[in-house]
Amino acid sequence: MEKWNVYVDYIMEQAEKLLAIDSPSGYCREVTDYLLAELGRLGVDARRTGKGGVLADLGGEDGENAMLLEAHCDTLGAMVTQIKADGRLKLTNIGGMQAANAEAENVRIITKENGVYEGTCQLTDASVHVNGNYGKTERTWDTMEVVIDENVRSREETEQLGIMPGDYVCFDPRTRVTASGYIKSRFLDDKLSAAILLGYARYIKEENISAKRRIYEHFTVYEEVGHGGAASVPQGVTEAWSVDMGCVGEGLSCTEHQVSICAKDSGGPYNYDVVSRMIRVAKREKIDFAVDVYPHYGSDVEATLRAGYDIRHGLIGPGVYASHGYERSHRDGAENTLRLIQAYLK
């Protein structure tokens, strides 16, 4: 709808900016600095949590029946686990990063004190004209390595650069936005939804809206390793949603143009009353949506429940194809997600 264009444009711009900031789980200081600055520019009260996330207070009337929207700004990535004898790096993955999806990707190696080095994640012995088993080799983290873009040929020379086990390895997101409205990038999960929460915060402020319920937003930093939403739930919250990617794939009905409403994932069913109301609101407001069951998925808000919080829970998000790989979504999916949040809480 035309009236939402300004907010969707903003969401797409913010998604590109967030995607450009490296933030594998646990290495999120720069992206949360950005979120705090942007929320401050919007006039939103926000603070850094003890775990390193960002908690924003959008205001609202009923603080005893408050709503919490959760999106994560941490991504997949890797960490140096060994410097090999030839100076190349063996990795361990962070979150669900797949070795097969990492092959031939440019990376940045974040050292503790000596800055950032570039490199490429490759199959060990990656030259097809040399390695006769290139096509037969299974891609695992034991068969992959990082070739550093420095003149190093030994463990000692790599160590002299200041690289050591425990250093983060960040993968190039390769973000592109097409004229037809598609956004392609690594880590749309979940920076597109983090941008949607920024868009909703801007909408609340610019439209001078005081919601009937107090509304909080939590940008978490450990979702990809399972405990992002396990803390920092403000007093008075009775309902929480994960705003994360919606699954697109064989056997599911969602497309990249829709908002996905998840009825159940690998952690079990979401709150029946919440899901039912989402569907009613989407139908009433003519929001393009799909309801699906995700076979291999877990969310921030499930970590919130497992931490013992007595709340109702839900999961929505823009449809994203090729999850945990080179992902793709569309501005329509962002708009429909934003509109569902707005309509549910208006």
From TrEMBL:
Keyword Metal-binding annotated: yes
Keywords noted in UniProt: Aminopeptidase, Hydrolase, Metal-binding, Protease
Hydrolase found in the keyword field: yes
Recorded superkingdom: Bacteria
InterPro entries xrefs: Peptidase_M42 (IPR008007), Peptidase_M42_aminopept (IPR051464), Peptidase_M42_dom2 (IPR023367)
Cofactor: binding details: Binds 2 divalent metal cations per subunit.
Necessary cofactors: a divalent metal cation
GO MF terms held by the record: aminopeptidase activity; metal ion binding
Pfam families reported for this sequence: Peptidase_M42
Residues that bind Zn(2+) 1: 72, 189, 244
GO biological process, one term: proteolysis
Record: active site: 223 (proton acceptor)
Amino acids binding Zn(2+) 2: 189, 224
Family, per entry: Belongs to the peptidase M42 family.
Protein name: M42 family metallopeptidase
Organism of derivation: Candidatus Lachnoclostridium pullistercoris
